[in-house]
Write a structure and sequence with these properties.
There is one protein chain. 44% of the residues lie in helices and 12% in strands. Helix 9 packs across helix 12. The chain starts with 22 loop residues before the first helix and ends with a strand. It contains 16 helices and 14 strands. By secondary structure, the chain is an alpha+beta fold. The chain has one domain: Cytochrome p450. The strands form five sheets. Strands 1-2-10-7-3 form a five-stranded mixed beta sheet, sandwiched between helices.
């Protein structure tokens, strides 16, 4: 989707005719004026799809935080992603992302202990080496498709942490992309339903086989997947099926936010050379550049919950059992929270209040690793390249769940050494 609205404010938009499941709105259109209009005129919006499925949407920052933060009112145990609307998650109560506290908290705490900012800091040098190798092909001054290549970057970083051999990285990157964007021609295999079914089966099977091999050889490698085998929920260890499902969830999380934040933020810098100049002149701005990039791109642009009972929110009522979509991409452009929200400003005060990693119990467990990876990436990018220009039109991901690009051809010029 375009990250800069063609017409901020949503003037003249008929919200009764808006289709938030129209993939063209995200691939070649622009949802930001729609979200602007929804925040102003319909903070609780109801839509019925042609097949009878229905959902309610919240677009204001405070309402998004309430839906994601209050698991007693809005449960995760029927599904959390809009691609599964209308079908309860068969892994609910076992898959970490589709589980409410207290079980969710028990599993998350054990995994999160390996992914705190302090824990991942020891990976900085390894991440830097991976980023340097990633950027090397762009140093020759030729065309470099940043978005296409960036899909692999998170696995280059997280693969060793997870205990996954390099020979499997490309396959897993492809499978996770199929899960998150099953309608994009770049990743689609048959219908959307078939793409989801194939990718889900292959990913769960991969982790299941990984666990089986680890149990049979009896070894330990200290990886995160290996750690999952010792996690307990309540008084019992996770079953092999639960380990496989949570491993699947971790793989998805590792490959969703980072690549699209990288390409979306670089595009924002290309479109605003003065912001690029500021970042190159003052490297201390890089942490804030990362936060503004996360806010600006909002790669995971929504999450879904289900109302446990009739819930008043946004000036209306979501009935018990109703699906509610919390639009992250809208919350991160809410003018009540961010001054001039449709401006990309690496000196913005309070950029870190974004909800790009979610909010509440399901806040992204891999957030510290993603932040570190992004900081190292932009440190190396800004140090190595003096100018970056487009070498073709960006191609946007065909997805209403993930905001990103499949192609971003660039040409980068080496930065002159002092």
């Amino acid at each position: 989707m375009r990250l800069t609205p063609a017409a901020a404010g949503g003037i003249g938009i008929d919200l009764d005719r808006v289709d938030l499941f129209d993939l063209d709105l995200y691939t070649s259109g622009d949802p930001h004026p729609v979200w602007d209009a929804m925040r102003a005129k319909a903070p609780l919006h109801h839509q019925v799809l042609p097949d009878g499925r229905e959902f309610w949407s919240v677009t204001r920052y405070d309402d998004v935080c309430r839906v994601l933060g209050d698991h007693r009112a809005f449960t995760s145990e029927r599904g959390t992603v809009v691609t599964h609307l209308g079908e309860d998650d068969v892994a609910a109560g076992r898959l970490m992302t589709s589980t409410d506290p207290p079980r969710h908290t028990e599993v998350r705490r054990a995994i999160g202990a390996r992914l705190t900012a302090r824990a991942v800091a020891s990976w900085r040098d390894r991440i830097r080496r991976a980023v340097v190798r990633f950027l090397e092909p762009a140093l020759d001054g030729g065309s470099f498709d940043l978005a296409e290549r960036a899909h692999r970057l998170p696995m280059v970083v997280a693969g060793p942490l997870l205990g996954i051999p390099e020979r499997d990285w490309d396959e897993l990157v492809q499978l996770t992309a199929m899960v998150t964007a099953p309608s994009d021609p770049h990743f689609q295999h048959g219908s959307e339903a078939a793409t989801l079914a194939i990718s889900h089966h292959e990913l769960v099977t991969y982790v299941t086989e990984w666990v089986r091999r680890r149990r049979s050889d009896g070894g330990e490698d200290g990886s995160l997947l290996d750690h999952l085998m010792s996690v307990r929920a309540g008084d019992a260890p996770l079953t092999d099926e639960e380990i496989a499902l949570d491993g699947y969830s971790i793989l998805l999380g590792a490959n969703v936010t980072t690549p699209h934040t990288v390409s979306g933020t670089v595009l924002a810098l290309i479109e605003r050379p003065e912001q690029l100049d500021k970042a190159q002149a003052d490297p201390s701005l890089i942490p804030n550049l990362v936060e503004e990039g996360l806010r600006w791109t909002s790669a995971a642009c929504n999450f879904m919950r289900y109302a446990v009972s009739d819930i008043r929110i946004g000036g209306g009522t979501i009935p018990a059992g109703g699906a509610v979509v919390a639009w992250i991409g809208s919350a991160n452009r809410d003018e009540s929270q961010f001054t001039d929200p449709h401006e990309f400003d690496i000196t913005r005060s309070g950029a870190g209040r974004h909800v790009a990693f979610g909010f509440g119990p399901h806040y992204c467990v891999g957030g510290p690793l993603a932040r570190l990876t992004l900081r190292v990436f932009f440190e190396e990018l800004l140090q190595r390249f003096g100018s970056i220009v487009l070498d073709g039109e960006p191609r946007h991901l065909r997805s209403y769940f993930i905001a990103g690009m499949t192609h971003l051809p660039i040409v980068a010029e080496k930065r002159a050494t002092p």
